[in-house]
Amino acid sequence: xxxxxxxxxxxxxxxxxxxxxxxxxxxxxxxxxxxxxxxxxxxxxxxxxxxxxxxxxxx
Length: 59
Description:
Blueprint lengths: L1 H5 L5 E5 L9 H7 L2 E5 L12 H6 L2
Parallel strand pairs: 1-2
């Protein structure tokens, strides 16, 4: 809620990842006139025993 209160009217607040045990009061968000955008982060499973950096850079 700190980021929503810090955003000016018409501002945007973004997040990455899935929130746990966090509730955003709908009316408080509505009256703050801020936009809330976000969602889960894309992740890739790296097989065990491989170098993570080389696996991520592989086309």
